[in-house]
Amino acid sequence: MKKYRAVIHLTEMERANLALNNVANLLNDLGEEETEVEVVANSEGVRALSKAGPFVERIGELARRGTRFVVCARSLAALGMKEEEFVEEVEVVPTGTGELVKRETEGWAYVRP
Amino acid sequence: MKKYRAVIHLTEMERANLALNNVANLLNDLGEEETEVEVVANSEGVRALSKAGPFVERIGELARRGTRFVVCARSLAALGMKEEEFVEEVEVVPTGTGELVKRETEGWAYVRP
Amino acid sequence: MKKYRAVIHLTEMERANLALNNVANLLNDLGEEETEVEVVANSEGVRALSKAGPFVERIGELARRGTRFVVCARSLAALGMKEEEFVEEVEVVPTGTGELVKRETEGWAYVRP
């Protein structure tokens, strides 16, 4: 288990750029050997992880540094989006809120950019 | 003590619909026998729990599933609102921030929709 | 170690007034002998802690009650701001997100006004 573990809650498309900056800063500041990060996107925030979005390269780069990206299946259904529309590093979880609560219950820190 | 405990911070009226969706998703995903949820409303977010608001039925339904709803007394005073204006399931706490910090100190997860 | 410890995440200038109200409410509600508070500002939120901003007096007052105020060095660089532009009680940390994750890992509660 790494020393630092953090979930980053991405729930507003317009805050996605900031959220990805925050992840990179976190890995640089605390050290990626010491730090495990998971980005949990729900509601409109899931759009930021789409293949059609502007962040494909940055998501790939952060994934190569060990960051996990997940999207909420309920949000996908509500927005009429399909798993294939997302960057390949992205995984689907049953609900974003459930994922956040499970991680925090395991001791992960929560940050909402 | 339930396996999962979460405070949902409702501080923006325009995010209330999402917050209530998040609560329902959480109960469905993690199971309501396993999950205790408290919605803590402060600032403009308290308006969402008013009898005059659009969420009366959904609040009642979530309360019947065990969700607790609380509003910040300081926010009520600042907005000139009275306890009687809120849905009957709603309780008043001295401050929303104090309530959140107390719950988190007890180990509850925090989610800010 | 105090009974309650909380980081307040200030990341939007327009929510700074609310964030400072939340800090004062928290100290009043839980008692300042029992409560340690740190305000972590990043992104546009750092502007609220500037000497040129409208909150100089309130920051000083909360600092005298024991609240720590920190700003993210990466955000300062991105905004072209210098440490001297901030209220004297403000300290610079390498990253706001790193500071939040460190504090939460130490057991501090997180609130995002």
- Detail the poorly predicted runs of chain A: none
Q: What spatial order of strands do you see in the largest sheet of chain A?
A: 4-3-2-1-5
Helix content of chain A: 25-40%
Number-wise, the strands of chain A total: 5
Q: Enumerate how many helices of chain A there are, as a single number.
A: 4
InterPro entries (chains A, B, C): DsrEFH-like, Sulphur_relay_DsrE/F-like
Pfam families (chains A, B, C): DsrE (PF02635)
Protein name (chains A, B, C): DsrE family protein
Describe, in plain words, how this protein is organized in 3D.
The structure is a homotrimer of 113-residue chains. By secondary structure, chain A is of the alpha/beta class. Chain A has one domain (4-111): Hypothetical Protein Ychn, Chain: A (3-Layer(aba) Sandwich), CATH 3.40.1260. Helix content of chain A is 36%, strand content 23%. Chain A is built from four helices and five strands. In chain A, strands 4-3-2-1-5 form a five-stranded parallel beta sheet, with helices on both faces. In chain A, helix 1 links the parallel strand 1 (4-10) and strand 2 (35-41). The longest helix of chain A has 15 residues, at 16-30. The first copy, chain A, is globular. The first copy, chain A, starts with a strand and ends with a strand. The model of chain A has no long low-confidence stretch (mean pLDDT 98). Chains in contact: A-B, A-C, B-C.
